[in-house]
Design goal:
By secondary structure, this protein is α/β, with parallel strands linked by helices. It is globular, with a radius of gyration of 20 Å. Nicotinamide-adenine-dinucleotide (NAD) binds next to α4 and α6.
């Protein structure tokens, strides 16, 4: 069993570390937010109170932060303190260029590094069924497997450094567009007088199917997993979806790829943020369609 230093105990980090603890690993957590630390400690994480103390004796360091700038700042502080051979893994969703830069920085410090973002959200983190998309050396992934497996449904070695983030950003581009399509369809089906539950069940086994339709269908009382039943609290918030589509648009610009549908959804997400809904689940997108924000 490994000693794992974990930085970032938020919506994802807390349930992911609980899976590692349940699998018998020792997890030493660190977060700037006292409430996040409290929740993680309830899940069995040890919180020694500082980044340096969390790193002490670690075999593996995992970061699960919001943005590339945060990962860069944490690793700048952590790298000089890590024992030789410590495996460094970043599971945050960050820009492809940031991930490539981190590969260079960590390699210069003489340590192995993987970019390993995830899909599956808080439910997948809680159930230990996340999809990991891993960029970096195959040998480093083999070393990481015993640590990733308790949190994972599937682990994909995508390719060289940065390719895990590239796969994640393209995946979330598709999620954003299918979510918008699901919200439009759900409102139109409602206005056409269709029964919400019957329509959702039919579409989920027909060509309108998508993960958003099966998990986030934005009409009340249809799916237990849908945030519409909880005033759009929790889940995958608008701010994070907007961040991911911004990363996709940047990748599109860098590769000369026009992404008109992504741009349209990103503009809608910005309207939601301007309306003060950035902290709500992304399926609040339905409010752009039903006119309740006009
Ligand atoms: P979150 O905001 O809930 O958690 C991030 C945590 O990092 C916070 O608790 C914050 O206090 C902490 N933090 C920030 N800077 C820090 C620092 N310098 N040192 C220590 N702690 C610091 O975010 P989340 O929802 O857990 O998402 C984390 C990452 O996972 C993001 O990159 C997100 O895009 C990605 N992701 C999220 C989901 C989801 O459904 N929430 C799904 C897949 C991927």
């Amino acid at each position: 069993m490994a000693t794992i230093a974990w930085v970032g105990l938020g919506h994802m980090g807390a349930p992911m570390t609980a899976r590692l603890v349940a699998a018998g690993h020792e997890v030493r957590g660190h977060d700037l937010d006292a409430e996040a630390v409290r929740v993680a400690v309830a899940g069995g994480v040890v919180a020694p109170g500082s980044l340096a103390a969390a790193l002490d004796g670690a075999d593996v360091l995992i970061t699960m932060l919001q943005r590339g700038s945060q990962v860069r700042a944490v690793l700048a502080e952590a790298l000089p303190l890590l024992p030789p051979g410590t495996l460094v893994i970043d599971s945050s969703t960050i820009a492809i260029d940031d991930a490539r830069e981190l590969h260079r920085t960590v390699a210069e410090a003489g340590l192995p590094f993987l970019d390993a973002p995830v899909s599956g959200g808080v439910p997948g983190a809680t159930a230990g069924t996340l999809t990991f998309m891993v960029g970096g050396a195959a040998a480093d992934l083999e070393r990481a497997r015993p640590v990733l497996e308790p949190m994972a449904g599937r682990i994909f070695h995508i390719g060289p450094g940065g390719s895990g983030q590239a796969a994640k950003i393209v995946n979330n581009l598709m999620l954003g567009i299918t979510l918008a399509a699901t919200c439009e369809g759900a409102v139109l089906a409602d206005r056409l007088g269709l029964d919400h539950r019957v329509f959702q069940q039919m579409a989920s086994v027909s060509s309108g199917d998508s993960w958003a339709l099966r998990t986030w269908y934005p009409m009340p009382g249809v799916l237990e997993t849908a945030a519409v039943n909880r005033d759009f609290d929790g889940g995958f918030v608008v701010d994070l979806m907007a961040k991911d589509l911004g990363l996709a648009l940047a990748a599109g610009a860098a590769t000369g790829t026009g992404l008109p549908f992504t741009a349209e959804v990103a503009a809608g997400l910005q309207r939601l943020r301007d309306a003060g809904l950035g902290g709500k689940d992304s399926s609040v997108f339905v409010k752009l369609v039903d006119g309740s924000l006009d």
